[in-house]
Inverse folding.
């Protein structure tokens, strides 16, 4: 299983679909004579429109059955209700093309001239239907573009979300503990990206999620989609690591950074652990940093693995063992 929007087929534009249907219909018509040709043209055009539209609709995952993390993320990006509405319109048009075919088929039985006249009328009506859903097709194509590159975060695998103000060392941490061979997926979403790295321990794969633009600023600075994406992350997170920079070199005073930590602690129901980074550059009073679970220096490679261990312990993940049927 990968992310649910990865393999959606391309969505045709109205004009493309009409051209395709009518040119195939013309070809089908040329293979026959008299009223048979007109019947064959109508059948071909209606079927192509109907099947293509239905295929677009059925390729989309059922939103009611999506994992809440993916549902929330998708909804933050494209508005699930609107997308559902657009897909409904495509279903409507698909059915309508078939209805028109049924309506006109009996009228194509008579003489050739009449058959041509009615076949043309049927084509005009089918074209109207497809033109009517032009905006819906464009919206579905746009949603596909936006969702196909969503990061592949497996909701069933343990996940560490890394939070903290910009430049405190979040990416440095993820890069330091995850294998470089694991290419990082990123998704540009408003000002936001979601990076995922992986680390395996005791045969369990942990996901580390770094969310620049989401959990690196106070909640009041997030727009609606960003807030919604944070809600989606709550479904995925099994623990949150908040990185603080006590040197202030990141550009944010410590009390501001701590306020973000407090907010995240309030918001997430999973363990939220705080770690001070850049301790190689800190020459203040360490007593003042006792509100954290630990400290590290990524640059000096000090305590980095320990911080990862601490997060893994906090998750305390129990893999679901396969049921032994011989017992
Ligand atoms: N001195 C020092 N610099 C660090 C440490 N960790 C990260 N940095 C630097 O801090 C800057 C921001 O790090 P980055 O990982 O991009 O922060 P992010 O914005 O939170 O992802 C980079 O120039 C890093 O090299 C550390 O332990 N010590
Ligand atoms: Mg970063």
């Amino acid at each position: 299983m990968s992310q649910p929007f990865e393999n959606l087929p391309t969505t045709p534009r109205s004009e493309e679909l009409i051209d395709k249907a009518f040119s195939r219909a013309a070809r089908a018509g040329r293979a026959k004579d008299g009223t048979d040709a007109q019947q064959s043209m109508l059948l071909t055009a209606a079927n192509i429109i109907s099947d293509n539209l239905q295929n677009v609709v059925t390729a989309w995952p059922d939103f009611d059955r999506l994992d809440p993390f993916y549902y929330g993320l998708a909804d933050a990006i494209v508005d699930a209700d609107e997308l559902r509405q657009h897909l409904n319109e495509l279903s409507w048009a698909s059915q309508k093309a078939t209805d028109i075919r049924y309506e006109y088929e009996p009228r194509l039985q008579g003489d050739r001239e009449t058959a041509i006249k009615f076949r043309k009328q049927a084509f005009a009506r089918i074209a109207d239907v497809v033109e009517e859903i032009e905006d819906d097709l464009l919206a579905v194509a746009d949603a596909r573009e936006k969702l196909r590159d969503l990061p592949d975060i497996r909701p069933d695998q343990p996940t560490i979300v890394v939070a903290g103000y910009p430049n405190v060392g979040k990416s440095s941490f993820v890069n330091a503990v995850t294998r470089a061979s694991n290419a990082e997926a990123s998704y540009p979403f408003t000002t936001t990206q979601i990076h995922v790295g992986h680390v395996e321990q005791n045969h369990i794969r942990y996901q580390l999620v770094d969310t620049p633009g989401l959990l690196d600023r106070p909640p009041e600075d997030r727009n609606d989609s960003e807030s919604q994406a944070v809600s989606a992350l709550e479904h995925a997170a099994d623990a949150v690591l908040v990185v603080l920079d006590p040197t202030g070199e990141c550009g944010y005073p410590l009390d501001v950074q701590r306020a973000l930590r407090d907010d995240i602690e309030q918001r997430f129901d999973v363990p939220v652990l705080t770690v001070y980074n850049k301790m190689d550059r800190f020459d203040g009073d360490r007593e003042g940093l006792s509100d954290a679970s630990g400290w590290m220096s990524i640059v000096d490679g000090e305590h980095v693995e320990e911080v990862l261990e601490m997060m893994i312990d906090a998750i305390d993940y129990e893999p679901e063992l396969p049921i032994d049927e011989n017992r």
Notes: Strands lie at 159-163, 195-201, 204-210, 239-244, 272-276, 294-295.
